[in-house]
Amino acid sequence: MRFGVVTLFPELLDAFLAAGVVGRAVKNSSIEVQLENPRNHTVDGHRTVDDRPFGGGPGMVMKAEPLGRAIQAVKQSMPLAKTIYLSPQGRPLTQAMLRDWSKLPGIILVAGRYEGIDERVIQRHIDEEVSIGDYVLSGGEVAAMVIVDGVSRLLPGVLGHPDSAAEDSFGEDGLLDHPHYTRPEWLDDLEGASDATEHEDTRSVPAVLLSGDHKLIAQWRRDAAIKRTWERRPELLANATISVAERKQIEQLNRAGRDGATEPQQVEKNEQDH
Ligand code: 9D3
Q1: Do 2-152 and 167-274 show the same overall fold?
Q2: Is the pLDDT of residue 256 over 80?
Q3: Pick the CATH number of 2-152 from 1.10.10.60, 2.60.40.3390, 3.30.930.10, 3.40.1280.10
Q4: Is 86 touching ligand 1 by the criterion CB < 6 Å?
């Protein structure tokens, strides 16, 4: 897989592309990344990449010509690539989109700065506009890294264990992950442990995980994943791959949540205090 990233701050990606799973993918040529800086496609003495918005108002806009030339330069080396503009106005990113894109020969990611880019660059060069969520960033670079990371780990041979990508949250079953534990079996109270430790056992490991009964362990994990998804992200359960028996377990949780003495669950969408 080949990635192109068009950015005014290519240095922001340097450490990212050198470390961890992505760093290994670069080193063993599972992925190739071309960084292209629009500033290197300016022709004026000041190397200008931004200008004031037509119509007035605050902030600056990325100029069309240097950005367009930078995108063209990347397209030249990746003629079959899909070109994505990262922006708050884009389609919200999902795991399904990352999976689809992992089958492409190339992806060109255009990161904006300032208030955004000249609309005519979008019309001429962009196949799809994508957001990574409803919060405000200062530019598209972090979003570009999110996509390089999320796609790279889905490529064959990039993750050590071939099941790891599929077993994740939002993998095959659409559930959140179960809790994880490692040694030591007993974790002493730490100095200044917070009130959060007051009501739970934060020292031991669930006995089932030490039992060596792999069938029972798989069952416990599945149950914990469903319970957690129900508690934290109930809206995910609608599209999760879940057996009939597990559907009944969820109905049971819903009944206990409604009329049980436990904490009330917020299940309604779009319910705010006003
Ligand atoms: C606060 C400024 N906003 C209102 C005038 C507009 C705005 C412009 C540019 C807000 C953010 C940005 C920069 N953001 C991105 O480039 C970006 C982004 C994001 O902010 N949130 C979620 N996904 C993305 S993808 C690119």
Answers
A1: no
A2: yes
A3: 3.40.1280.10
A4: yes
Nearest atom of ligand 1 to the alpha carbon of 93: 23
SS3 100: helix
pLDDT tens digits for 189-216?
877 766 665 668 999 999 999 999 999 9
Q: Is 165 in the pocket of ligand 1 (CB under 6 A)?
A: no
Q: How many CB atoms lie within 10 A of CB 122?
A: 19
- The DSSP-derived string for 157-219 is TTSSSTTHHHHSTTSSS--PPPP---S-SS-PPPTT--GGGSSS--SS--GGGGS--HHHHHH
- pLDDT tens-digit series, residues 139-170: 999 999 999 999 999 999 999 866 666 545 56
Angle between helices 20-27 and 141-152 (to 10 degrees): 70
- In the chain, where are the structural domains located? 2-152, 167-274
Indicate which residue of 66, 153, 234, 246 is catalytic.
153
Topology adopted by domain 167-274 = Trp Operon Repressor; Chain A (1.10.1270)
Active site residue 58: no
Cis omega (within 30 of 0) on the bond before 234? Answer: no
Clarify whether 38 is annotated catalytic. Answer: no
The mean pLDDT value for 21-40 works out to: 98
Rounded distance between C-alpha atoms, residue 144 and residue 84, angstroms: 9
- 53 Cβ inside 6 Å of ligand 1: no
153 noted as active-site residue: yes
Ligand 1 atom closest to residue 135's alpha carbon, by position in its atom list: 21
State if pTM tops 0.90.
yes
What residues are paired with 61 via a beta bridge?
51
Residue 144: strand, helix, or coil: helix
